[in-house]
Specification:
The protein is of the alpha+beta class and 55 residues long. The protein is built from 2 helices and 3 strands; from the N terminus they run ββαβα.
Length: 55
């Protein structure tokens, strides 16, 4: 599982998994941190491609 942290505009943090990506997309004033180190390289590549395509 890829770990994520969502930093909201009000400075609160939410920790979770890839489900936070959709929340991040809905809140354009938020920041998303992804921990993709030591994960399957193919899974990392696909996730990063998905993020770039949908920005």
């Amino acid at each position: 599982m890829i770990k994520c942290m969502l930093l909201k505009a009000n400075k609160s943090c939410v920790y979770g998994g890839e489900e936070l990506i959709n929340t991040w997309r809905e809140h354009t004033d938020s920041y998303l941190w992804l921990d993709i180190d030591s994960h399957d390289k193919e899974q990392e590549r696909l996730l990063l491609q998905l993020l770039v395509v949908t920005l």
